[in-house]
Amino acid sequence: MEIIKLLITKFDPITLGVLTLIYFRVYKKLNVLDNAVNNRKEGQNTLSQEVTEIHVKLDKVINKQIENEAHIKHTKEQVDLHRNVDEKAFNRIEKDIRSIASKVIA
Q1: Cβ distance 49 to 57 under 8 Å?
Q2: 37 touches 47 (CB < 8 A)
Q3: What are the φ/ψ torsions at residue 43 (nearest 5 degrees)?
């Protein structure tokens, strides 16, 4: 009771209202957290176990994505390599066609 009298004399009504709203908001969030921690079913994972499980799954996804990116990079390199080889072959074939065509025309 003395605390309430001290608060009323020390703060104006608007500040008291804001402090009360903040108190109830924090109290509500703490209750939600308390219920999540203390009212879990028997055998159910704790919050830290669930967070660890999420981190493990996330690591697996990230590692798979890194592997996929490496595979894509390798595939692009192979395509570029074959493109250069094919381009050289097409140039040789085009040169042969021109030489044959010049012999036929002459």
Answers
A1: no
A2: yes
A3: 90, -10
